Amino acid sequence: MSDFFDLKKTNIMVEFRIIGNDFEPSMVTDNLAISPSEYWIKGEAIKGRDTSRTYTCWALSTGYMESLDINEPLDMILEKLSNKCNELLLLKKSFDINYKIDVTINIEEGQAPAVCLKSHVIEFAHLVCAEFDFDLYVYS
């Protein structure tokens, strides 16, 4: 789990994001008993840019990792969250938040990874009403 990787190898990052307009990220941390990889509050300035955040976010990320199978980083995230479905559902019921599972794939030298969602991943997403977002970047 590292942000440092061989730029010539295909790499993948999976991120579970909780997004909304008005919630306190520390409350999510307390309810899930998991520290986020990052978080921000709606209205905060975006470092290095002349704009601010348009929503609040609590995110758990694998960081980029060399892999040819999206299920490796997906399983890393689900290991931390799969026993938190009740807490996630309670948070969703209590606050106007949405769940997203973002998969970012950097394809290097034509080495595309396997992109097949296993049933336990689909079941988790369904249980907590999460959406998937796939971003593909192809480099030669």
Computed Rg? 16 Å
The largest sheet is:
6 strands, mixed
**Estimated helix fraction:** 25-40%
Shape: globular
Order of helix and strand elements from N to C terminus: EHEEEHHEHE
The total domain count is: 1
- In terms of DSSP E residues, the strand content is 25-35%
The tally of beta strands, per DSSP, is 6
Low-confidence stretches: none
User: What's the total helix number?
Assistant: 4
What's the mean pLDDT score?
93
How far the N terminus sits from the C terminus, by CA atoms, comes to 24 Å
Q: Structural class of the secondary elements?
A: alpha+beta
Structure in words:
- By secondary structure, the chain is an alpha+beta fold.
- It has one domain.
- 28% of the residues lie in helices and 31% in strands.
- It is built from 4 helices and 6 strands.
- Strands 1, 2, 3, 4, 5 and 6 form a 6-stranded mixed beta sheet that branches.
- α4 links the parallel β5 and β6.
- The longest helix is centred in the middle third of the chain and has 11 residues.
- The protein is globular and about 45 Å long.
- The mean pLDDT is 93.
Which labels suit this protein?
single chain; 140 residues; alpha+beta; 6-stranded mixed beta sheet; 6 strands
Concise account of the structure shown:
The chain is of the alpha+beta class and 140 residues long. 28% of the residues lie in helices and 31% in strands.
Give the helix/strand layout:
Layout: E1 11-20, H1 25-32, E2 38-40, E3 56-61, E4 65-66, H2 71-81, H3 85-94, E5 97-108, H4 119-128, E6 130-139
Parallel strand pairs: 5-6
Antiparallel strand pairs: 1-3, 1-4, 1-5, 2-3
